[in-house]
Design goal:
single chain, alpha/beta, Rossmann fold, 5-stranded parallel β-sheet, two-stranded antiparallel sheet, globular
């Protein structure tokens, strides 16, 4: 029987040969890969050594968090598709004194800077997007997630109520011994390279929920882990829902960017689709 070291060495050499023979430009390949970095092998070969590809860590992460998968629509989001036409220059935000268009430009620039810096270093400042429902916060957050995953970063994108529900579900006595525990989920939320918490809104946060959120945010602050948060609440309003300690830490660890729109963008897109259908029928 071959020694395990010999088997691994042979496997590495096989992958190295196949990577050497691959086309110089990915677009010339005849096959579409979910991960172009490792071509779905899960291993990256560097000289005589092999290491797991970041896509494998990402898959393991998503297996733990069942609700962490970005929706099919969100997978199409990108910062290049962020449309400034939904943000008018004529209206001024009463909180910041800036026009809706200027706020959107600032928010987009902050997202681009975050992606660039996070690809270079997982440690650093986070982003906190505030603004009313339908102003583009989730679009920017999911675009950031897509850009970072494409760049090989480990990202957990999850809606806050879903995160809390998944943690609470670990208390179910009918779960099998092989299921993940609260400790597993909390540890992954605390330590993942990039954590994106969507919709930290006006929910009914119990003391239990506040404590879990505080534990995650406090750990990430202390270890300089980048975090992106979206909320329809102001920092002052957040204190009433998640507590002063957690809010204070979020403000300390994140750049705050606000978005504002005259009309919910989702409604505007719906109306645009309806008009297009009518035009086709004419």
């Amino acid at each position: 029987m071959k020694h395990i070291g010999s088997l691994l060495s042979a496997k590495i050499q096989q992958i190295a040969r196949s990577q050497k023979d691959r086309p110089e430009y990915p677009e010339e390949s005849s096959k579409d890969y979910n991960c172009i970095t490792c071509e779905d092998r899960g291993i990256i070969v560097e000289g005589d050594f092999a290491k797991p590809c970041a896509c494998m860590r990402q898959k393991a992460l998503l297996r733990r968090f069942k609700n962490a998968l970005v929706s099919r629509e969100m997978l199409q989001h990108s910062l290049d598709k962020f449309q400034l036409r939904y943000y008018t220059q004529d209206k001024v935000d009463g909180i910041t004194g800036l026009s809706f268009r200027d706020l959107a430009n600032q928010a987009l620039a902050a997202a681009r800077n975050f992606v660039r810096e996070a690809l270079d270093n997982v440690h650093g400042d986070g982003l906190l997007y505030t603004g009313p429902v339908g102003c583009g916060k989730t679009f920017l957050a999911s675009s950031i997630a897509n850009a970072l995953m494409e760049g090989g970063r480990e990202v957990l994108f999850i809606v806050v109520p879903d995160l809390l529900d998944e943690i609470k579900a670990t208390y179910d006595q009918n779960r099998t011994s092989g299921d993940v525990t609260e400790h597993h989920l909390m540890e992954m939320a605390r330590t993942v390279e990039i954590l994106i918490l969507d919709d930290l809104g006006a929910h009914n946060y119990t003391d239990w929920a506040r404590n879990r959120l505080y534990s995650i945010i406090n750990y990430r602050l202390n270890h300089h882990r980048r975090t992106v948060v979206t909320t329809n609440l102001s920092p002052q309003e957040l204190e009433d829902y998640i507590g002063e300690r957690t809010t204070s830490r979020l403000v300390q660890m994140c750049q705050i960017r606000r978005l504002a729109v005259a009309t919910d963008i989702r409604y505007r897109k719906h109306d645009e689709k309806q008009r297009m259908r009518k035009d086709k029928d004419i």
